[in-house]
Amino acid sequence: MNDKEEKIKKYAQEQEGVMPNEAKITPVSKEEKQIGPVITEVPKTNMPWHENSEKVTLGNQIGWDKIKITDLPTQGFFYPKETEIVIRAASAAEIRHWSTLDEENISALDDMLNYVIERCCAIKFPENQLSSWRDIKEIDRFYILLAIRERTFVKGENVLQVKISETQKLEVTKDMIDYITFDDRLLKYYDDKKRCIVLKFKKTEKTLEIHLPSVGVTNWLKNYINRKTQSQEAFDEDFLNFGPFVIPDWRGLNDVSYEKFVYESQNWTTIEISLLTEIRRIFADTINPIIKYTDEQGGERVIPLNFQGGIKSIFLISDPFSELA
């Protein structure tokens, strides 16, 4: 290329704004064309995908039925206010597992009750507080189990009966059972804010909180006893009589925190021990489910809760042969 041609090329590049040996780069816009109006949020209104989980109640979920918490044996007194409890029907797989229950094994029976509660019951505390089936109170567990049974056999395939005489049987529903009668001496000290019984002593002004045992606490204690027994380790058996009533929550409960409860119990006074012993006796006397019914003469009768066919009959069809062609 001669000097004249070189000068012409350089002039053309200067006019295009490109220096020699540089490539011209044209920037590509990253903006996309807007199709339709921009989606905006209305003040104080959440979009569907921003729905506040606190507003989504358990009772609105398909397949789940809400239990009226005031119908529970505890009447909901020992749960946070606005707690929701829902249940669903037991599946065939869950009933199959239930059918393997060994009623003579108390520990296995307890595990089986928890198995059904864990899968067929859900609990929600207000304000998105963490909640679990383990928060269910022991006293309420059997009522909820019977509610699940009624939700499972809506066509009457399962009939629970108790024998009331040599010739008569009575069909039982969950609402016929009297699970617990709260002693007025205890309810007098019920604290609506703390949702437990708060005892205040005259001389020391010390307070002692009494909680109704939750499934989570009693289940942890059962496993603790089994572990210690199997490893042949010593543990404070006396405290186990009171532990379920003074341990407020299963969360954070481990060997270290449990031993702290045991250690603190060494400082209980004679008055505190006497009071806890009496409270334990009161609950032992009241937690004794009975069935109330009206006889042919119109009188009210009570009988012990003892199902024909045992506990296993709760989730089995009463007369399976009637289902055959």
What percentage of residues falls in helices of 4 or more residues? 25-40%
- The parts where pLDDT drops under 50 for at least 5 residues are 22-26, 39-56
Count of β-strands = 11
Order of helices and strands: HEEHHEHEEEHEEEHHHHEE
Terminus-to-terminus distance: 104 Å
Query: What structural class is derived from the secondary structure elements?
Result: alpha+beta
SSE blueprint and pairings:
Elements: H1 3-15, E1 65-67, E2 84-87, H2 92-98, H3 106-120, E3 121-124, H4 138-152, E4 161-163, E5 169-171, E6 177-178, H5 184-187, E7 190-191, E8 196-200, E9 207-210, H6 215-230, H7 243-246, H8 255-265, H9 270-286, E10 290-294, E11 300-304
Antiparallel strand pairs: 1-2, 2-3, 4-5, 6-10, 7-8, 8-9, 10-11
Helix pairs in contact: 3-4
Structure description:
Helix content is 31%, strand content 12%. The protein is α+β, with helices and mostly antiparallel strands. It has a domain at 181-286. The strands form 4 sheets. The chain has a 3-stranded antiparallel β-sheet. Strands 6-10-11 form a 3-stranded antiparallel β-sheet, with no helix packed on it. Helix 3 packs across helix 4. The chain starts with a helix and ends in a 21-residue tail after the last strand.
Q: Characteristics of this structure?
A:
9 helices, 12% strand, alpha+beta, 325 residues, globular
